[in-house]
Specification:
Shape: elongated
Structural class: mainly beta
Largest sheet: 13 strands, antiparallel
Number of helices: 2
Number of strands: 34
Helix content: under 10%
Length: 471
Amino acid sequence: MAVFYRPEKAVLGDVIPFYDEGVFHPFYLRNYRANRDATHRDSWVMLTTKDHVHFDEHDTRIDGGTGSVIHVDGLYHMFYCTFQALPERNYINHAVSPDLVDWTEIPEDRFCSDDQIYAPLHFRDPFVFWVEAEKCWWMILAAQKNGRTTRRSCVGLCKSKDLRKWQYCEPLYAPMDAQCAFECPDLFKWGDWYYLVFSSYADRFQTLYRMSRSLHGPWLTPEIDTFDTRAFYAAKTGSDGRRRFVYGWNPTRELNVHQFDPQVYDGKDCNTWDWGGNLIVHELWQDEKGALWVKPVPEVLDAFGAEVPARPRPLSGSWSVSDGQCVANVPNGYAALLLNAMQPTCRLSVDVELLDETAQFGVALHVDEGFAEGYYVSVDPFRRRVAYKTSVTMTERGGQMFPYEVEQERPLPEKRDRRYHFDICVDDTVLEVYIDGKTALGTRMFDRKGGHMGMFVSDGRARITNIRFFA
């Protein structure tokens, strides 16, 4: 069974979370790519789920870009964007429904930027919410504020009394630091803090967040201001009043739209990222200082199959394997062992304690018997990061092709000890790694199939316990 949802013959793009009457209804943008025809149209699609594993689909027949859904006085309101080619402009649109099934567009409510506060091109992705203190509706948007440089990214703001006529206001957040629009903005309050979530596709390519004690700012940047890697984009949050989730997509690497892919490499692992892919849902939690962290959704972890006995098999270095525990002792070297054969959908759960001043611990995926071909996720405690790289970058040719040390990395929060808990989740080509229920690293693995999971330790000692494999 597939765990990370992807629509048939299509890809899943920007998710619009919505919760109503005990059920999650995450809408999303469906894109059929080459499968588009008279019966397969791009549109907003409503998913229905209670566990973020099993989904039902309903096509809204609304064709447009990201937005939001609210329920007011028995009527559902959808706000979304559309795109005009000549002259190039973004428009905000309004549709209503009595039941989330049949939607009626209201053309007279359509509007675009004012060309005074906001630049004419980027004005999209409306997110609408009620502000009790002002007795009106706020709409925040992906926008660019007019200015002298191209660094004009902002989260725009409009206000309304009736959800139909909107007043242009100064931006909610305008650092003017990136050459883009801050896409898919989302805002919510948790305890004493307000959180602003948005995605950047220039200068940084990730979903970020800011926090404030007031809707009017100032908006503070936390030490770690992202939820996942570049392979988790356009993320927005939704809540049932008890738990809050953040929904993004893990992109494919199939299209080479911008013609950047290597011409002599016939695999996909080094290709450019596409728009759209599979749904990834993390559960959010808030620490005592107000910072946000992600952890795996328990229902999603449980969907990876039944537990099977772990079968560690040392390959190199000094290992002691007994009673469900593996201890590596390589103070000046490298130790590797193989675990179970990889399955198309599988999960590894493991606890690791780095002893002494150990330099590195990691997990290998789809790795061969020579521990060379495969994918590698490693914790680097000295640099406080978890990193990912493919075996192609570890060869002489890879060193000539790629001017970077690793292919994905995430910062790790400061720790008082050197103990780590890993959940390694594999669903076909999608990889999602969780560390300590705080840090997520998502990516793709296209070219290698089969092989084994494995573990490795470099320059030190490590005790590995609670090794659990699910498939």
